[in-house]
Amino acid sequence: MRRGRAVAAAVAVLAVAAGSLALTQLGPGEETGGAKNTGLPPATAPVERGDLRDSAQADGTLGYDKERKINAGAAGTMTWTPRTGSTVERNERLYEIDGRQVRLMYGAGPMYRTLKPGDKGRDVEQLERNLADLGYTGFTPDEEYTELTAAAVKRWQKSHDMKRTGKVGPQDITFAPGKVRVKSVGAGVGEQAQPGAPVLETTGSERIVTFRLDVAESRMAKAGTKVTVELPDGTSASGKVSSVGRTAKPGDDPQDDSPKVTLTVSFDEPDEVDGFDQSPVTVNLTGETRRDVLTVPVNALLALPGGGFGLQVVRGGTTREVKVELGMFAEGRVEVSGGGLREGAKVGVPKI
């Protein structure tokens, strides 16, 4: 994870503060907020008022949603398979075994049995709703397979030059939540298929991005976090974190095996996103925003002898040290309060 001078600045603050001691430090008997010192710092920076946004950057991978495997519904020889990368929609041919076409229908549940008059269940309702959407009506879509359902199935079978049995099973259709994109073919033409064995690996048709985030950065790992994705063609697209993995796993980098979680990004306009599957992308996250706060450069902080942090305020050729409370670190700056600070005041910083 690459934090654009955000959390990295927070981690480094002690080292920065220690270096700032060489610039100035409260004397043993001085009062915080009131001591005068004519030793001017080598450079100054203004106290600014505005919004401070926490941000992060990570490497991601462009892909597709809803990856799943499609298993053969019957035994036999594969006689046709779709082209990798093609999209299959409702009622279109998904694959063939022994010359028999298996078509795609939409539904969350699997096609696990041959349906016939008298059968009841949610799979019946799934089939009936597909038939109705395709224009094969004459029944009420419900969980009961009636003779009216069988009549509609026969009309559907006739339109595809199938035997008009009025029954339909896994050898005829496969259910998927929506249209699918063929990611890979598990059993090619001429190979043997067995019921329950994978023949295709598919995804949804919507583009997504996946990336991994350190568990330590979990405050950025929230569903709904807005992101901008830098795409392979140089353009960018907006989106948001749509899901966060529940299991942390060690990283693949031998130099960084800290536990990480996998996040998924959905695009605001997925149809406008182009690029090869599995292409590398960069994800820019926008986390917490602190509005209308006072901020100073991180390297303006001083480590106070009694603990805490302060700033060296410069005014009219003199300086004074004030103790401040720290808030959020981001964008190379830190939120500060207390010490009578005001917008536009000058604070000492090491010379760049």
Structure description:
By secondary structure, the protein is mainly beta. The protein has four helices and 22 strands. The strands form three sheets. The chain has a six-stranded antiparallel β-barrel with strand order 2-12-16-14-13-17. The chain has a five-stranded mixed β-sheet with strand order 8-7-6-4-10. A four-stranded antiparallel β-sheet has the order 3-11-9-5, with no helix packed on it. A hairpin with a 5-residue loop joins strand 13 and strand 14. The longest helix is centred in the middle third of the chain and has 13 residues. The N terminus is likely disordered.
Q: Could you tell me the radius of gyration in angstroms?
A: 32 Å
Helix content: 10-25%
Number of strands: 22
The global form is elongated
Query: What structural category do the secondary elements indicate?
Result: mainly beta
Structural descriptors:
disordered N terminus; 11% helix; 6-stranded antiparallel barrel; mainly beta; elongated; 352 residues
Give the helices and strands, then pairings.
Elements: H1 7-11, H2 13-20, E1 43-46, E2 48-64, E3 68-71, E4 76-80, E5 87-88, E6 93-97, E7 100-106, H3 122-133, H4 147-159, E8 173-176, E9 180-185, E10 192-193, E11 198-204, E12 207-214, E13 226-230, E14 236-244, E15 249-250, E16 259-267, E17 280-297, E18 302-303, E19 309-315, E20 318-330, E21 333-337, E22 346-349
Parallel strand pairs: 7-8
Antiparallel strand pairs: 1-22, 2-12, 2-17, 3-11, 4-6, 4-10, 5-9, 6-7, 9-11, 12-16, 13-14, 13-17, 14-16, 15-16, 17-21, 18-19, 19-20, 19-22, 20-21
